[in-house]
Amino acid sequence: MTQDELLKFNVEHVKGAIKGIEKRAGATKKELATFLNISSASINRAIANGGVGIPEYIKGQGEKSHVYFPLINIALFLTNSTVRTA
User: Fold this and answer.
1) Residue 62: what pLDDT?
2) Closest listed residue to residue 56, CA positions, set 68, 44, 65, 66
3) How many angstroms separate the most distant Cα atoms in the chain?
4) What is the DSSP string of 22-73?
5) 3-class SS of residue 20
6) Could you tell me the sign of the dihedral formed by the alpha carbons of 45, 40, 10, 86, in that order?
7) Could you give the C-alpha distances from 59 to 17, 26, 27, 36, 70, in angstroms and in order?
8) Which residues does residue 67 pair with via DSSP β-bridges, in sequence order?
9) Does domain 3-81 have CATH number 1.10.10?
10) Rounded to whole angstroms, how far apart are CA atoms 6 and 41?
11) What is the phi/psi pair of residue 67, to 5°?
């Protein structure tokens, strides 16, 4: 499977798993945590540590502003995190 085919597959997978994501700015921290099967605290910790280990996100200006993970960023994260074997 090529990189482009894998990305297309991951986009469709995310759309199916997170209902309505294509109509919004992106997934919330809670939705992403559920999708990745990790805790919201793990997402918060990753954000506090510079975003390592999670998809790129959009964050507002305020200290307690909302954080959204765009569909394409989640799909790219999954595509680039895939371990390739021989």
Assistant:
1) 85
2) 68
3) 46
4) GGSS-B-HHHHHHHHT--HHHHHHHHHTTSTTS---EE-SSTT--EEB-HHH
5) coil
6) positive
7) 22, 11, 12, 19, 11
8) 59
9) yes
10) 29
11) -120, 130
Q: What is the pLDDT of residues 2-15, one digit of tens each?
A: 889 999 999 999 99
DSSP assignment letter at 15: H
Question: Could you tell me how many residues make up the chain?
Answer: 86
Query: Residue 67 in contact with residue 28, Cβ under 8 Å?
Result: yes
Compute and round to an integer the Cα radius of gyration of the chain: 13
Contact 15, 21 (CB under 8 A): yes
d(CA 45, CA 54): 10
CB-CB contact of 56 with 43 (8 Å): no
Entry pTM = 0.89
